[in-house]
Write a structure and sequence with these properties.
Elements lengths: L3 H23 L4 E8 L5 H15 L2 E5 L5 E7 L24 E8 L17 E8 L5 H17 L3 E9 L5 E8 L2 H8 L2 H10 L8 E7 L2
Antiparallel strand pairs: 1-3, 1-4, 2-3, 2-8, 4-6, 5-7, 5-8, 6-7
Length: about 220
């Protein structure tokens, strides 16, 4: 088993490598970036404080998973991405991580948000949902039609603040749904709707891995 010092060195190296990825992403406008981070459970409060400073200083949104408060995701646009590697994530975070940060770069898929903010708003009670959808290669047309349909229904649902679908740039069969509702009841009502159930019915036989959906609150 690797020592704590060795793991911290690996994690710090991953943090620095992310800086180079950010600089490359900034060369292409309109890219959307998600960075997933898992920290030690006992370090969740300390990690929250560190990441709150990062979010405030770099125009990023910080979400904390409700079921697992030791899991975070940073949401950013490439136009706001830091130019210097040292500005990406604080080195102090490396010793709190249980795995290197998982940074995924996307472009927008589906309809651009019209009348919706890219951010879910400053409502700290808003309930966020981030879902990863991995579609088998031959199933793209059917899955993309289903994604476009659920985005339209989601944006029209009661209490919805945002419903973005992003397609990963280096794996075109990977999509992330980033959505938010004013209240948990609004999300639960949408998930019980025929549109949401039809979407899950369509994509169930098309996905290449387990449908991954997590709920978050804003932590910035």
């Amino acid at each position: 088993m690797q020592s704590k010092a060795a793991f911290a060195s690996i994690a710090l190296g991953a943090l620095m490598a992310l800086g180079s990825a950010v600089a490359s992403a900034a060369d292409s406008p309109e890219q959307r970036i998600l960075t997933f981070m898992d920290v030690r459970a006992a370090a969740a409060a300390q990690a929250t404080s560190l990441l709150q400073s990062v979010a405030r200083d770099s125009h990023r949104e910080l979400l904390k998973e409700i079921a697992r408060p030791d899991r975070f995701v940073l949401i950013e646009l490439s136009a706001h991405a830091p130019a210097a590697s040292g500005e990406t994530l604080p080195p102090e975070l490396a010793r709190l991580l249980v795995a290197p940060p998982d940074r995924r770069i996307h472009h927008e898929f589906g309809e651009p948000a019209a009348g919706q903010s890219m951010r879910g708003g400053t409502n700290q009670r808003a309930l966020y949902l981030v879902a990863h959808v991995d579609i088998g290669g031959a199933n793209q047309p059917a899955a993309q039609d289903a994604l476009r349909a659920i985005q339209k229904s989601g944006r029209a649902s009661a209490g919805n603040l945002r419903f973005d679908i992003w397609q990963q740039t280096n794996r075109a069969n990977h999509y992330n749904v980033i959505a938010a509702w004013r209240r948990a009841a609004d999300l639960e009502s949408f998930e019980a709707s025929s549109a949401a159930r039809d979407f899950r019915t369509v994509v169930a036989p098309l996905i290449g891995s387990l449908y991954d959906e997590r709920r978050y609150r804003r932590a910035d």
